[in-house]
Amino acid sequence: QSINEIINDLKSKKRMNRLLQGDVGSGKTIISIIAMVANYLSGYQSALMVPTEILATQHYETMKEILKDLNVNIALLTGSLPKNKKDLIHEELKLGKIDMVVGTHALIQEEVVYKNLGLVITDEQHRFGVNQRNAFKNKGITPDILSMSATPIPRTYALTIYGDMEISSIKTKPAN
């Protein structure tokens, strides 16, 4: 159901602003990867921001493995990368050579420019401040926004905090 809600949002002319919530291990990451693939197939770049370098590396490795048979260019951008590697990723993002990027707050630095950013995803969104989340969504021209959290947030509370946001909840873990 969550995948269908997100894909329908991505297909609509209205900007997606959706919170995906579910327990740890419920499948939020795979759902975000499916959204990124749909975005890629539509010709746009995607960016996934996470709070730690360890989590960024885990997501990056997972994505590379899952998407190895697709002709998709995935990058990892974190603060600890050597300057020459960061500069190369910055250049490739600007030229549109990178389709999907996973990283920490390094994704929202001023020098990071995207050619065609269509989807921004924030994992553990509660660990980022309002200014960081705003800087991320403002990196593109009205990109779709997907936030993920393992902390259940009632709809009325979410609307108070985040504004006009749709909520998808994963209630059962996927098989296997």
Describe this structure in words.
By secondary structure, the chain is an alpha/beta fold. It is built from six helices and seven strands, in the order αβαβαβαββαβαβ. Helix 4 (83-95) links the parallel strand 3 and strand 4 (100-103).
Features:
single chain, 176 residues, alpha/beta, 7 strands, 38% helix, 20% strand
The DSSP helix count reads: 6
Biggest sheet strand order reads 3-4-2-5-6-1-7
The number of strands is: 7
Report how far apart the termini are. Answer: 18 Å
Which value, in Å, is the CA radius of gyration? 15 Å
The arrangement of helices and strands along the chain is HEHEHEHEEHEHE
As a percent range, the share of strand residues is 15-25%
* Poorly predicted residue ranges: none
Determine the structural class based on helices, strands and strand pairing: alpha/beta
Mean pLDDT: 85
**Sheet bearing the most strands, described?**
7 strands, parallel
Q: What's the multimeric state?
A: single chain
Helix content: 25-40%
The 3D shape can be described as globular
SSE topology sketch:
Elements: H1 2-11, E1 17-21, H2 28-41, E2 45-49, H3 53-66, E3 74-77, H4 83-95, E4 100-103, E5 117-123, H5 130-137, E6 144-149, H6 155-162, E7 166-169
